[in-house]
TrEMBL record:
Organism classification: Eukaryota, Metazoa, Chordata, Craniata, Vertebrata
Lipid metabolism recorded as keyword: yes
Keywords: Acyltransferase, Endoplasmic reticulum, Glycerol metabolism, Glycoprotein, Lipid biosynthesis, Lipid metabolism, Membrane, Transferase, Transmembrane, Transmembrane helix
Enzyme nomenclature, EC number: 2.3.1.-
Chief location of this protein within or outside the cell: endoplasmic reticulum
Catalysis performed (reactions): a 2-acylglycerol + an acyl-CoA = a 1,2-diacyl-sn-glycerol + CoA; a 2-acylglycerol + an acyl-CoA = a 2,3-diacyl-sn-glycerol + CoA; a 1-acyl-sn-glycerol + an acyl-CoA = a 1,3-diacyl-sn-glycerol + CoA; a 3-acyl-sn-glycerol + an acyl-CoA = a 1,3-diacyl-sn-glycerol + CoA
Family to which this protein belongs: Belongs to the diacylglycerol acyltransferase family.
Record's bilayer topology term: Multi-pass membrane protein
Name this protein carries in UniProt: Acyltransferase
Alphabetical list of InterPro entries matching this protein: DAGAT
Compartments in which it is found: Endoplasmic reticulum membrane
Transmembrane stretches, start-end: 21-39
Length: 335
């Protein structure tokens, strides 16, 4: 394989963008393990005056990710996130007005690898979210296992993410004054194993929990399609039924995390590495689907709303795909 090296005369802004994305990639690939290792070392070397107070704090703070988290405007406003957003760049497009007197569930599709589109748009103060949706607070729901990692959980919560558990989503949607948005990456980590460039395979056919929660809280459902999300990395071919996919599913079952064998570009060359490609991400927020509050929805009511949601998601994709270089024959594949 012939290496294509980056030119030496790259503007400083682009170098800073690359550095910002590098720290983000390393954070989500390594920081949790490093934090667990630090805690283990504190215990092994008996630094009790450090780990005992923290474990006491952890005991009383354990439920915070289920109760709206603990975001920090200071952390969300770090300049690094502006460079992170501009690397791809990341865009948020609104198609309909939303009423800040109501609560909403944004179904985000596809998951892609590490979901930078969802993170950049809903977890930093450099996206257009506040300008497009004034009066709203967005909560990105992520897998609960991240919040079991000591120290790392504090950093993650400071950026706004909360647990994806039913209790956590219900807490966000219980705001009587409205103005809360639960952002749920419906396909989950499993869908990242389908994140191949040019493909839009979504694990949604059996994902009905978010629809049932929407019914019990009367929260309107809003489909969000993120063009470019699957184009940032390539991964080793892993079709359904292959030995690799089987192993990945077993790892996912044991840890809650999917492990796609990914690659993209490098820091100083464009041929191979773990840095995502510079591909624009456009997250299109569709029109809300009104939901009548039903405290005890029947399976039939859940199924009907689920079908309506999938139809709206498909319409949103078909309506906008041509603007972002998606061929006319390309369709969403629901699994």
């Amino acid at each position: 394989m012939k290496l294509e090296f980056a030119p030496l005369n790259i503007p400083l802004a682009r170098r800073l963008q690359t550095a910002a994305v590098l720290q983000w990639v390393l954070t989500f690939l390594l920081l949790a393990q490093v934090c667990v290792g630090i805690m283990a070392m504190l215990i092994i070397y008996n630094y009790w005056f450090l780990y005992i107070p923290y474990l006491i704090w952890l005991y009383f703070d354990w439920q915070t990710p289920e109760k709206g988290g603990r975001r920090s405007d200071w952390v969300k406003s770090w300049t690094v996130w502006r460079y992170f957003k501009d690397y791809f760049p990341i865009h948020l497009i609104k198609t309909q007005e939303l009423d800040p007197g109501h609560n909403y569930i944004f179904g985000f599709h596809p998951h892609g690898i590490l979901v930078p589109g969802a993170f950049g748009n809903f977890c930093t103060n450099y996206s257009d979210f506040k300008k497009l949706f004034p009066g709203f607070t967005a909560y990105l729901h992520v897998t609960s296992c991240w919040f079991r990692c000591p120290f790392f959980r504090e950093y993650l919560m400071s950026l706004g993410p909360v647990s994806v558990s039913k209790k956590s989503i219900s807490h966000v949607l219980s705001e009587a004054r409205g103005g809360n948005i639960s952002v749920i990456v419906v396909g989950g980590a499993k869908e990242s194993l389908e994140a191949h460039p040019g493909k839009y395979n979504l694990f949604i056919s059996q994902r009905k929990g978010f629809v049932k929660i929407a019914l019990t809280h009367g929260a309107s459902l809003v489909p969000v399609i993120s063009f470019g999300e699957n184009d940032l990395f390539k991964q080793i071919n892993n079709p359904e039924g292959s030995w690799l996919r089987t192993v990945q599913y077993r790892v996912k079952k044991l840890t809650g995390l999917a492990l796609p064998l990914l690659y993209a570009r490098g820091l100083f060359q464009y041929s191979f590495g773990l840095m995502p490609y510079r591909k624009p991400i456009h997250a299109i927020v569709g029109r809300p689907i009104p939901v009548q509050r039903t405290l005890h929805p029947t399976p039939e009511q859940t199924e009907q709303l689920h079908q309506t949601y999938m139809e709206e998601l498909r319409k949103l994709f078909d309506e906008h795909k041509g603007k972002y270089g998606i061929p006319e024959h390309q369709t969403l594949v629901f699994k």
